[in-house]
Amino acid sequence: MRSIRYLFLGCLYGMLLTQTALAERMVTDLSRHTIEITSEFSGTELLIFGAIERGIPLDDGGHGVVVEGIDYDIIVVVQSARNDMIVRRKELVGPIWVNKEFRTLKDVQGYYAVTSTRPLNHILSNEDLQSLQAGLEQLKIEFVEPVSSNDQKAFRDGFIRNMKAKKLYYQQEGTISVLDDILFRAILEFPANMPVGNYQVDVHLVRDGVVLLSEQSPLEVGKAGIERLIFMFAHEYPPYYGIVAVIVALFAGWLGGFLSRKLSG
Question: The whole model's pTM is what?
Fold first, then answer.
């Protein structure tokens, strides 16, 4: 009985060794983990880089055998914190366009970007892309109010179109460079109007339509300098911020009128 037990443990240990030898590893990092927004901020770029350690199977003699021709794909998804947003539909009333209907989107990203080594539909199935929230077409967008299927599509398409126009949503395919199936890098662009808060950077390693590994890195975007003080004051003391804003506006109006009278006199 003891010999059978030792034989079983030995087989299990051998299986673990084989699985360890076959397992890939991936290390990722960002060129920086903090983006500071000042009065002179006009947008920036972020470098995402990493390395892949390929799995090496063992032959019958326990020696490593390097397998050539293994192709990996990389998908990088960057998204900000989620908040409710209102989408308005413009209609022509007489000679002008006015906002009429609106819908509230539930927990949507203020910034979303995805980049990959190849077109996403060549890497994973639609179901897998939906589970990873990878791709603008696969984004899960829900509404607070009950919405018909036609309105759901119209408001969803309009929202994504507006966010793309503001450069807050974008998708790039075939832009991640991979060297010798080991080193990879991706460059993402952030516009000047990017929202502040905590961002999430997900890097997915894919082979033969299967997600092997996923690594997540945090990214913090915040105001700096006098902009940070004003931002914190506005969010922590909104009534007082409103009063100060009204006083500043009144003073600016009075000062402008006073100077114009002086110059005209």
Answer: 0.71
